[in-house]
Protein 1
Amino acid sequence: MTDIPAEPKVAEVDPARTDNVVLTGLLALPALFLTVLSLVPLFLLLQLSFAHHDEGGLWTPSLELTQYAKLLNPLFLKVAAFSFTLAIGTAVVSVAIAFPAAYFISRMRRRAQVTWLVFLLSTLSLSEVLIVFSFQVLLSGSGAMVKALMALGLMSSAHSLYPSFGAVQACLIYVVLPYIILFLYPAVSQLDDDIPAAASTMGASPVWTFLTVTAPIVRGPLLSAGLLVVIWTVGTYLTPLVLGRPQNWTIGIQISNAAMTTGDLPLAAAQAVALVSLMVGLLGLTRWLSGSGSVEP
Amino acid sequence: MGAAGLAATGGLLAACSPKAGGGGASGKLKISSYGGNFEQAMSEHVYPVFEKATGIQVESISQPSGLQFLLQLIEANKAGLAPMDLCISTMIDVGRGRKADLWHIRDPKPLTNLGNLPAQYVAQTDKGIDGVGALGWFLAFVVNPDLVKPIPDSWTALWAAGNKDAWGLNGGAGLLYEITAKTYFGGTEILDTEDGILKVLGKIAELKPNTKLWWDSEGTMQTALENGEVKGGVYFADVAATLKANGTPLQIVFPKEGAVIDFGCWCQPKSSKKIAEADAFINFMCTPEAQELIARKVNAPPLIKKELLNLTPEEFAKVSSNVAPIDVNYKARGLHLDFMATRFNQMVSS
């Protein structure tokens, strides 16, 4: 009798232990990567933001709040507000374009779908530098866009369309759009076609069905896509630098000015810490808002 | 010192220099300079003459401009691994490197040609010399002659009415401070105090309606000039000359108040042990022969005194001007760089 319970006990413990070992082994590498590649630099950034900046030199280790006090000037706050407005604007427009695009691509025949996806993937190989300078040529006074607008009678005299807020916004949307379409594609391709069909049997128009039935089902992925765009674009640097006026400059440019022009690396670090904190705050707020008053997780 | 004298020094140096790995009897010097046209012209036209004169072999490396390079060099030097024996550094970075104990302090004795350089092109502290002027570059007034008539001869044209959105100007606490101070405030000394800086900045702010582009990277301004997006502005004279040679309609003007001359210094990281070879190179670069090569082949303004140079007026006019240049006020930048940059950024983005 005493032998019998002993056997299953051994058999029970062993696989679980093996599973744990395998799991730990599998997780060790990503955990190590996360620690080394994200937490360590973040810690160094924090440390640098408390350092002392030597005028005409670089910095000396210290523990002072001088740099954070400098962040409270109206210019930095204005630039921070602008950066977030720009990023949220980019998110709203790009998701609004990407969602129907992904939906219609997912409803195409297999071959057309593959063609579209390959095309979108191949546009990802263009670097932001290339895109921004192409926009500069496209929007210049002698560029194709201005010529087209003149031919259509929408523009009376040839003048370039940059530097301007519109140029910055358009270029950012262009840069993120393929990512967002590809991001939304899996979610929309799994949508059950019977649900909109049911809605239309009950008399809803296709547009109405799309807006009131289909879109709410994929609310989660849409929100994630929007947040992803905000995270990507809030720190944007090159696009506003090349296509914007100084009024359209973002925190990224402020950080670069502090670090590279004045050599004030502690201030640049403090600005970067502020940017990361604001971003974390925004993510927290979104999670809280989407968590309350919603049945979806 | 003539070429024969140089050759003799070089021979001597080569004989007593430590042997580099895989090197022969002569020493080897790794020299970095700004990548692109400049580094190419130096390695094609200047280094071979030095190698022939001294027997010291030069390995040319290209270096980026900007603070990032300095930060990497400081770290590499701490580890005893500076990737070159000599590099070019702007005066601001010479100062930053000095505070980080980066540069070797030179003994002036072997630098027999140092007297050829005007004193402002030698970076010196109480401890000694840590940078010697390598080459200059001008920031001049460039205009598209198809769009700007008549061709201006003064910086005041930047402020003139009727030029709305015409110019591309140097942003980021750049040399507009010097241009404005010289043009409207009698000289760059006004930048020595914060009050003076604010007065000059007030005048720069009047340029905002006429400015379409505040450029930081020269590539941005290049595209704007090539596309006719700006009618002109403030730009590097040597890059503008290259653009002009490639067909961009450009006129390079050295205004009557002077163009701004900025310059880089030869600096040696402490972890480099090739002191004698570096001295020989710096001494060579201060000779009229080397400076003439810089003017003729590298298209950069020579830094040594003009009377020592054997350049034809045409050769001289191609890279420089008889109008006295405006020197960058490095003293002001050492004391007030943060203030100048912060206020400048506030001014342009408000």
Protein 2
Amino acid sequence: MKHWRFEVYDREGFADVHGKAVLDDIKELGIDEVTAVSSTRVFMIDGDFDEAFANRIAQELLSDTVCQECFIGRMPAPESEQKVTVIEVHLKSGVTDPVSGSVMTAISDMGKDVEQVRTARKFVIYGDITQEQRDLITKRVLANDCIEDVIYGVDSEPPSPHLSDYELELKTVELLGLSKAQLVELSKKMDLFLDEKEMLAIQDYFKSINREPTDVELETLAQTWSEHCVHKTLKSSVDLDFNGEKIKFNNLLKETVFGATQELNKDWCISVFEDNAGVIEFDESDAICFKVETHNHPSALDPYGGASTGIGGVVRDPMGTGLGAKPIANTDVFCFGMPDMKLDEVPKGVLHPRRVMKGVVAGVRDYGNRMGIPTVNGAIYFDDRYTANPLVFCGTVGMLPNDKCFKHGKTGDLVVVVGGRTGRDGIHGATFSSGSMTHEHEDIFSHAVQIGNAIVEKKVLDTLIQARDRNLFTAVTDCGAGGLSSAVGEMGEKLGVRVDLEKVPLKYSGLSYTEIWISESQERMVISVEPDKIDEVLALFSSEDVEAVVIGEFTDDKKLTLFYDGTQVGQLDMEFLHDGIPKYSRQAKWYSPNLSEPDMQEKSDYAPDLKKILSSYNVASKEWVIRQYDHEVQGNSVIKPLCGVTNDAPSDAAVVKPKFDSDKGVAISCGMNPLYGDIDPYWMALSGIDEAIRNIVCVGGNSKRIALLDNFCWGNCGKPEILGALVRASQACKDGALAFSAPFISGKDSLNNEFIMDDGTEVNIPSTLLISAVSVVDDINRCLTMDFKAAGNKICVIGVTSNELGGSHYYHVNGYKGANVPKVDLELAAKIAERVSEAINKGLVSSAHDCSEGGLAVALAEMAFAGDLGVDIDLSKLIRGEKCTRADIALFSESNSRYVLEITPDKFAEFEDFMQPLPVSYIGKVTQEKRLVVDDGRGNKVLNSDLASLKDAWQKPLAW
Amino acid sequence: MKQVNALVLRAAGINCDYETQYALELAGANAQRMHINELIKKPEILESIQILVFPGGFSYGDDIAAGKILANQVQHHLGDIVRKFIDDGKLVLGICNGFQVLVKTGILPGLAGADNKTQTVTITNNDSAKFDDRWVYLQPGTDKCVFINKDQRIYLPMAHGEGKVVTKTPEILEAIKANGHIALRYVDENGNTGDFPINPNGSMESIAGLTDSTGRVLGLMPHPERFVRKTQHPRWTRLGDDVTVDGMIIFNNAVKYVEENL
């Protein structure tokens, strides 16, 4: 066996874009001494071949002979007048190297099989830097020490890839004799994240069967009972103290979010809150499903890997819904710290928000694009409190046939694991994501980071859908949090299941039976297959190079039984595993904070404020992000995330047309406003619902067929006031769902987003509720965008503008919070949504945009520069609520349920008539002159700006 | 009417196969999707096919470089068969990743008199170093490519991170230009070339697509299969009925050519 090393680099005269990108990042760190960076890819190949074949590999495979050179062996450091620093970044042993498999396949296409391929990245840094600067560059730009090792210079050896073999050693844990304190200690020691009450329940169970548990049994219980998997907080009973009033919930989720769905009892809801995604009717033959997940903690540690496995994980949810859905669209919503944060203000153990953002965007991009799923909708919010706890929400909409919406696995079916191999990656992900983060997490939980390989998942998807259409399996679920332990445990819940863990295909040797069982390695699905179909199943997957292996069988004993090499290593009763978790009762309180409105002077010109809002990170254009996502793959786009004359204005929502032969569409939107939550989480949640629905309505979605999803990301819910905010938001979800007749069909929560700094300070994220909405579009030809279409058209505002600047961006950019948070008039809001939706579907409207962050002024500005047409507004025509006398309130109030519509003169009479008796203000018209002009009705132009300067203000901040 | 058969070649990571099949069917072809493993086993299938399409995606994750592993696989298992397919007078279309494959197997630019097994052109990282999804105007640069209409400027979406066309030597670039191999150039709406974003990736000569010496092989970075109905145009809500679905020009021309010539 010979060890070969190849170094591939760009030939002189061809731009080294990776080196250039690294140089830019180094400059961003404030290190100006570096003058140039060159990057090299390193391939280390173990195989029996000669120099001639090595040359062929170098020339034909590894390098692009047009623009690259390949050096066989280890290149000496380049000679230079400047100081030269050589840094090599290798994957830690055991971390998946996605390129490795492809290169092995390619070499075998060339006629030789090789033993092993590993890759690394090498950087040569030119410039007189100190060792301290070198280490900073390594840590902040080049490598992530969770998954990568770094070597310096050209003499050090790369990390050894070799791992030892595993020999079975059955581990039992002494539990029966432990005291309460010792139980808690044990939970901590094993990273189980189980509390005293749960540990006692487990102790009781093992006392009742009269033996000590094995390690794998405890781990299985910890995974299955983790907050991440079982949502114990949302399902617990809660005593709420709301401004002194006591309210009791026996099961928070059932009585709020889920309760509304049950009460609405829509016949178009096919499967809600039970499968991996919520399923609703689409047409006579197909259904759509939608799931949104969070992947927050992993993204904080490794933004790229965390986000890519986040999207990879949520894609598997529709794939594991019913008998498998084909993904048709992805969504992404992120919350980060401020991107312009000073370097020395970044807390210890935390990555800079800009690095987090770049990494997260790249992760979603690389995984989503490779999967061939258009990423069509999203949002990004910035707040200091997200610095240590960034939030990464990823969603996937899928489509599946109506007759394949339910699983029907049965006793005797085989358990088959399909797709990626199992390694040590992601061990303890589910439990880890259920606890608070500290500055030491970076070190302790590096193994919780998972590594994605999109192409493996794409292959699984391609073959799984074929198998589904040939009726080859009876049930499917994805391996997500908790790995096989959760997936197989769930599938066998009502039956019982036996698994032979040594049969699970491994990435490398050395894994114990427990590691195999709880690993969260990506790209794995579990299917149940009738024995007489197994040959056809294995042949189908193998025909497209997807690994599928029988690892066990569903039984009828209602037990989970695990074997390794014939030795039983664990057995649990399904009933205890799934229902044995103790019931909790929790204390919550919410006392409305004592807040007041700021005293801001009236001004004669609000253009500077408008520009400040347009330039604020939350409002500013996200084009830099959007264009990195393929939002048109599958050819299904109807309303793209960017619209307008120059394809760069912000669409309210996305519409895709999932079937080639039908003009029916699916509208997808989101709503969220963490700023309101500081004032009142109840109105924050209702505002989010109202916003998501407005967005659906604006693009032409059917307001009567909207389904909602909730994603609660909250701080430490052990604290009654933080849980109180959660309860208030849950109540709002119920009220909103009922008012809009829009059921929640799926949800997920990520609690305990608290960061404990090295000085002990606790930082909780703002209470953050993401509402995602999905609706059917009856005829995509009626869809609408938000750009003004023609001069002379009339502009009207539907809804009432009130003095509701609390939590607004107008206050935010001026340094205030305020008190008058926007409320929702539930009865009126639903009527408006329905009527506007009908007006759009009747073809009466030319453009529609909702008023959200920045209020009416921002909505008008965006519509104007999107259409490259001016607008002339008379603010005195605006229908206002109480105390809404001032121009700034009218311009920037973020009152809910408001839509700005553009109507052509010939449809005006019909429109006017149709909207009766709702509050409609006819405030002005679209003009040819490219200016936004707003008169307060007394001849004062409170806004008079050219569109170019407004658009520039909006585009610049995030045009990276 | 003559039956036109098209084959859309799938592989691990290819992800534009369904919409490409649909576009071909809209143009009147009988189109099937097939995994490369199956074609390698039964290459004789190509005998009944007149249009072979390498669709877009990230074949094998674009590991090493975009399209490289698939190109290597084609070279070693299907190279002779695909070249014979072209010699038989049939059509080959490579879109995005498929274009990268055609270039990395040496099939494009396929200069007359040169062998079409050695790579002379590459498609590499965009100057912006980023994946970029945007719509671009394309000006045909030759009248010998059967897929395009010489005087008809078209508007298509592109979505790639590695789309910059580069030749190995200035002489090759000259030969490509002189012999009408530049099928499509990135231009603005008036037909003028320019810098970013008009030329979105920094391609030499603003090259967006190349054809071979026969004119029956076309590779292009933009995606014609993503513009086969009005409502895919980014401004369809502004334009009313004033939209031609430019992507169909390429598929219609291909089918028409087969009907009339094969």
